[in-house]
Amino acid sequence: MKIIADGNIPFVAECFSSIGDVEVLGGREMTRSVVAGADVLLVRSITQVDADLLAQSKVRFVGSATIGFDHIDIEFLRRENIGFASAPGSNANSAAEYVIGGLLEIGQRREIELQGKSIGIIGVGNVGGRLAKKCAALGMEVCLNDPPLARQSGDSKYRPIEELFECDFITLHTPLTFEGIDKTFHLADDKFFESPKPGCVFINASRGGVVESGALRAAIESGRLGAVVLDVWENEPNIDVELLKMVDIGTPHIAGYSLDGKIAGMIMIYEAACEYFGVEGKLGAGDFLPEPAVPELVVDGSSGSEQDVAAGAVREVYDIVEDDAGLRRVADEPVEERGAFFDGLRKNYPVRREFQNTKVLLATEAAENKLERSLKIKSLAKKLAGIGFRIK
Length: 392
Fold this sequence. Notes:
The protein is α/β, with parallel strands linked by helices. It has helices at about 10-15, 30-35, 50-55, 75-80, 90-110, 125-135, 145-155, 160-165, 190-195, 215-220, 240-245, 260-275, 305-315, 320-330, 340-345, 370-385, and strands at about 1-5, 20-25, 40-45, 60-65, 85, 120, 140-145, 170, 200-205, 225-230, 250, 295-300, 360-365, 390. The protein has a 6-stranded parallel beta sheet, sandwiched between helices. Strand 1 (about 1-5), helix 1 and strand 2 form a beta-alpha-beta unit.
């Protein structure tokens, strides 16, 4: 069995070689002629899988190691009886941790105390749901908007989008859809950006096309937004470099790029492929995950506010500023080479582990008495555990 796989799926050759012969390529190198003779195609989000790619090919199974599948023509696969699997939820925790890193970084830069602030989460699927819990753990007031879930569940916790415009922060976690009453393409347009309260902090870690770039630029230039964090961009990999210069934090579509999430996604499509072809899967995530770079962290709870301490702990495990600095170098590249530079940042992304791999040992030397020390440790431990750390 011949398998063609995106090299951005870590350990994909080592894993899938247990069921076939694997050829690893870049996601944008997967052309019709290249994949024609393959039985299995394994992709990430940058490869468009449709009739243009697969017509008259031998491909019998497509796996996408991503939580979304707007890059996949599902109806075409069904018509051609081609099996399909994606990896819903695999990197959701990674993306939620990315937003927590962004919130804490903006909080430190702008001297915003997150506790007591409100955050509107648009799209409450795997990522949005996890993020809601983490934000609540930081003491934020969470407001949820998800029209499909609201209709399906009838739950009043899902609020009209108009209510979210009163929040201090707004973050997008929707799929990219182009039709229907819940269309999300250019959801954040000129009208959208006229609505948030002055000084609102805007975050997008969903899909670039959910935001109209020109409308966002105008909102930044007007001074209506307090800060902007963008992980995703229209027209990737050829992103709007002028917009990048305007945002507070800009990263190259890596919110979900923790090694934990990538390997979880790979194993999900590996198990699906094994089931589809009726072969026994022999490997699991534990066969590929290394020891974390920061297995243990000693945190001095008296070294600042709880937010200062949480921000410091997060930075030890994942420093979003490094990803921001890496992307900003794209402006130094010739225009014709910027797309390749963007892709290179993703292809060569360093190992990033999720917070749950790190045990935190808390100490509060400056507390005046045992009761004060105990209460401070409990409060800080609750916050750190709530965003994902293990407390020792």
